[in-house]
């Protein structure tokens, strides 16, 4: 009887779980602004007033980190480069706005990135900005230029940290007022965070740490959704918290699950000023919604043709070159959706001269997705390269001569 009782309980819990799936028409994040995307494709999975710029606090430092990693990639810095701490960032240490001690007055880029991203310390961000650009205002100009390159035009940036200008004394960005602070929309944040993850995935080596040692002192992450945190969720390995005393608390999260890298943005969680952890509860709700309602489906596997995709070959030992996928082409599908999702092949050029090498680019396979939320994708629809499945040598000499003779006659006579 005890065994039967346990079975009944398991069935009851299973039915309860099935009944708890929340669909799009019934779901709303407990925040003023929110967004969820699949990182690799850039597909938008959820948005809620995602285009209104608001104060984001130190979520700003995701952009600061991007420019630091870019400087490293360009050889201007390394993780071991020593960075001097000027009087300006040093004056903010030991306060509520910068929570690590910088008494040594010189630290590596690695040290400062860790303090900035894990414990949300602001002085390290200023020091890195000064190291790269010579001054924080010059660095802000770099930040603005990067946003323009990504097509972001609605942002307001006045510093490298997200602090309100009133904390910075005489160090404010030229022309900005004491009350100004950085403002980004949920869409802006999603674009910045996605580019950071795609271009510099090594950032996760830092943001996945719950504890780190900073010159003899152990600090813990402000991200309480890391597995060790109060709101720990398996798989979460980033990304950044943010807070504004005038606007509220926010959080950007990412994790890999069900063969998808998901990124969520929650800005100004409800009642967040009184209950800062609400940003984590709201993020958990959003992640549950995403994984209950979306899945990844492979349309064309690596090494496979799509509907006999091929390119004509002139003067080859075969008349056609088979075009196969260089990588998988996949789609993110919404549960229950009947909207059209398919792959479309386009060859380029339409005829190739032999020889054709194995792996040579033959065309493009694009995803056509009609099941769109908002603008659908942060960038264009995904596409992959189609390549030659095998080498096709040129025809042997007598045949080759004849083929070229016939072509010449057709084109010139």
Describe this structure in words.
- This protein is α+β, with helices and mostly antiparallel strands.
- It has 2 domains: 25-294, DD-peptidase/beta-lactamase superfamily (Beta-lactamase, 3-Layer(aba) Sandwich); 301-395, Sandwich (Peptidoglycan synthesis regulatory factor (PBP3), Domain 2), CATH 2.60.410.
- Helices cover 30% and strands 27% of the residues.
- The protein has 10 helices and 19 strands.
- It has helices spanning 2-19, 61-73, 87-91, 109-118, 122-133, 136-149, 186-199, 203-207, 278-293, 397-412; strands spanning 31-38, 43-48, 54-55, 82-84, 106-108, 183-184, 211-214, 217-220, 236-244, 248-257, 260-269, 294-300, 310-314, 320-325, 329-334, 341-347, 351-353, 361-369, 383-388.
- The strands form 6 sheets. It has a 6-stranded mixed β-sheet with strand order 16-18-19-14-13-17, with no helix packed on it.
- A hairpin with a 2-residue loop joins β10 and β11.
- The radius of gyration is 27 Å and the shape is elongated.
Q: Compute the number of structural domains.
A: 2
Task: Note the total helix count.
Answer: 10
Number of DSSP E strands:
19
- The residue ranges in which pLDDT falls below 50 over 5 or more consecutive positions are 1-20
Order of helices and strands: HEEEHEHEHHHEHHEEEEEHEEEEEEEEH
Mean pLDDT figure = 91
Q: Main β-sheet, in a few words?
A: 6 strands, mixed
The proportion of strand residues reads 25-35%
CATH topology (fold) name of the largest domain: Beta-lactamase
CATH class of the largest domain: Alpha Beta
Mind telling me the C-alpha Rg? 27 Å
Main traits of this protein?
5-stranded antiparallel β-sheet; 19 strands; disordered N terminus; elongated; Peptidoglycan synthesis regulatory factor (PBP3), Domain 2; Beta-lactamase; alpha+beta; 10 helices; 6-stranded mixed β-sheet; 413 residues
């Amino acid at each position: 009887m005890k065994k039967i009782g346990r079975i009944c309980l398991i069935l009851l819990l299973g039915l309860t779980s099935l009944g708890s799936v929340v669909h799009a028409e019934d779901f709303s994040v407990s925040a003023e602004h929110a967004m969820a995307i699949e990182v690799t494709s850039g597909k938008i999975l959820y948005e809620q007033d995602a285009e209104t710029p608001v104060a984001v606090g130190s979520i700003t430092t995701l952009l600061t980190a991007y420019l630091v990693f870019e400087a490293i990639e360009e050889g201007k810095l390394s993780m071991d480069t020593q960075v001097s701490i000027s009087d300006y960032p040093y004056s903010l240490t030991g306060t509520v706005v910068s929570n690590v001690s910088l008494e040594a007055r010189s630290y590596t880029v690695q040290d400062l990135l860790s303090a900035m991203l894990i414990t949300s310390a602001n002085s390290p961000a200023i020091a890195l900005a000064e190291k790269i650009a010579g001054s924080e205002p010059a660095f802000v100009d770099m930040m603005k230029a990067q946003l323009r390159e990504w097509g972001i035009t609605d942002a307001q940036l006045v510093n490298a940290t997200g602090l309100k200008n009133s904390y910075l004394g005489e160090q404010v960005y030229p022309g900005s007022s004491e009350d100004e602070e950085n403002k980004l929309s949920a869409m802006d944040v999603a674009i910045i965070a996605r580019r950071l993850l795609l271009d510099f995935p090594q950032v996760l080596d830092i943001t996945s740490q719950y504890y780190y040692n900073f010159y003899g002192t152990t600090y813990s992450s402000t991200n309480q959704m890391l597995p060790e945190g109060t709101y720990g969720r398996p798989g979460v390995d980033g990304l950044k918290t943010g807070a504004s005393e005038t606007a509220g608390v926010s959080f950007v999260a990412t994790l890999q699950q069900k063969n998808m890298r998901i990124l969520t943005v929650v800005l100004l969680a409800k009642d967040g000023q009184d209950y800062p952890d609400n940003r984590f509860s709201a993020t958990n709700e959003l992640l549950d919604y995403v994984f209950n309602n979306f899945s990844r489906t492979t349309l064309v596997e690596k090494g496979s043709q799509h509907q006999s995709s091929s390119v004509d070959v002139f003067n080859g030992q075969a008349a056609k070159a088979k075009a196969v996928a260089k990588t998988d082409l996949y789609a993110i599908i919404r549960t229950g959706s009947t909207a059209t999702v398919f792959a479309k092949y386009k060859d380029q050029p339409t005829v190739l001269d032999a020889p054709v090498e194995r792996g040579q680019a033959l065309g493009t396979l694009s995803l056509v997705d009609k099941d769109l939320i908002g603008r659908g994708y942060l960038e264009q629809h995904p596409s992959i390269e189609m390549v030659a499945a095998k080498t096709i040598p040129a025809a042997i000499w007598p045949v080759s001569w004849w083929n070229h003779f016939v072509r010449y006659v057709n084109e010139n006579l």
